[in-house]
Amino acid sequence: MGLKASRPGLAGHDDPAAAALPARAAAGDQGAWDxxxxxxxxxxxxxxxxFRLSDRDLEDVAQNVWLLLVEQLGKLPEPAGLAxxxxxxxxxxCLRVATSRRPEPPEPPDAAVTGxxxxxxxxxxxxxxxxxxxxxxxxxxxxxxxxxxPYSYAAISTALGIPVERIGPRRARCLERIxxxxxxxxxxxxxxxxxxxxxxx
Length: 201
Known about the structure:
Shape: globular
Mean pLDDT: 75
Radius of gyration: 19 Å
Helix content: 55-70%
């Protein structure tokens, strides 16, 4: 199993395939391990940054969290609670490193904030899965619309060969496909909002 201590990328309680990821990774499935890291690396990194650690300490904590997960993959009491386990482990490791670097222990981030990060990680994973179900034409369009900064309609028209006046309606159809995606069925149960907005914006 390779380790990735990546900067800012979900398995839901209502998603059996996601809940099975820890067991699959423990059995040596590299694809399952890669999916776990992709789903939760941004959450781990986000929690780390709240402790104001140095870049080197951030990397060390993230690496240690993934190492600890490798050791626990087959022992997690509730595989569907992987996000919560990772959040708690990341906070504990951040506190350990921060305490060793400072004379007085730092004030840990509010647990409610960490809980919000878990929900955001679950929501982002569901949205990524929904986007992966889109036809290639929709994926290309949505990638350009959500890039930072987003492409202008003129640039999208040139790149994808879509008349400017058809971009809004096509965007609306793509968003409707996302809303209907099986990947988003459990999103409402974890406090997520379906993507929306003005379809012709």
